[in-house]
Amino acid sequence: MHKIFYLVIFSFLFVAACNEDEPMNTESEVPVIKADSFYDVMVDEDITYADGLSHDPVSDTNVAMPQKIDVYHPNNTSTNRPVFLFIHGGGFQGGTKTKPEIIEMANYFASRGWVFASVDYRTTSDLGNTFTGIAPQQWIDFTLQNGTTPSDAKTSIAMYAAQRDAKAALRWLVANASTYNINTDYITVGGASAGAITTITLGISDQEDFRDEISITEDPTLVTANLGETYKVRSMVEFWGSNVKIDLYGSVYGVDRYDENDPELLIAHGTLDPAVLFSEATELDSIYNSLGIYHEVYPLEGEGHGAWSAEVDGLGLFDLSFEFLVERQNLTIE
Length: 334
Hints:
By secondary structure, this protein is α/β, with parallel strands linked by helices. The protein is built from nine helices and twelve strands. It has one domain: 3-Layer(aba) Sandwich (Rossmann fold).
């Protein structure tokens, strides 16, 4: 059985490794952030960032479904803010952008000066039995030929739709950078579980991947997805994820998207995770070592899946992420 479908099955059960590269520099002005919680946090909730095709439960027709994003931003006068897009987990079966741990993380970063966006996306619960415009035929055919069950095949299609949505959300943030005073040279993408899988794929895939395989004729909702915007992910933060989706894309289309220009990466993963095995973290570690890209791997000793409360040397996941981003993005800290 292909590794990609092996991982799909198990993902539904709901130190540091690096080279000596110097932190990246940028030509734009470096954002200033606070060392501790400082600003009041403002939240813009349930903004539609794009539409996506979804299933009409009373027929076999696909209909446009608004996709939503929550934007947390500091109540300050800064015109130069880094941005952190976070993608929730849920095995591509469900999940929500308002998971309590994500809201806590959003307030942690926004109160220190980031714009933090939490995004919803399409899952299997939004799919019926008609996939035209939701996933390309080549992806569907590969899935049906290699999937072990109809449920696994449907999950694979949801993985594709989720990736299209995540890319649309990031393009929406770029399109609205002036509204939130975002410096687009400082883009971080993060996620947990299925969201971490989507994070890795978002950072490593090319701009056109998960965008151009379907035409606007097949999916008219693409006109809402800010297709003219481009972005460059600078850092990725992934909790208990894997590279299963980017590898699946490579298998479907016969391409290898890994290269030395991929974003820097922080991994936190439970060593006893039964859903997404810790070996997935070590595989990503090996890939990044081979490419010579700076990354940090934090084994969460004795932890299983969804170890939000885990600590490493007295630091929680938010603090680890904060230190990684400040150091590697050369942010100015007050």
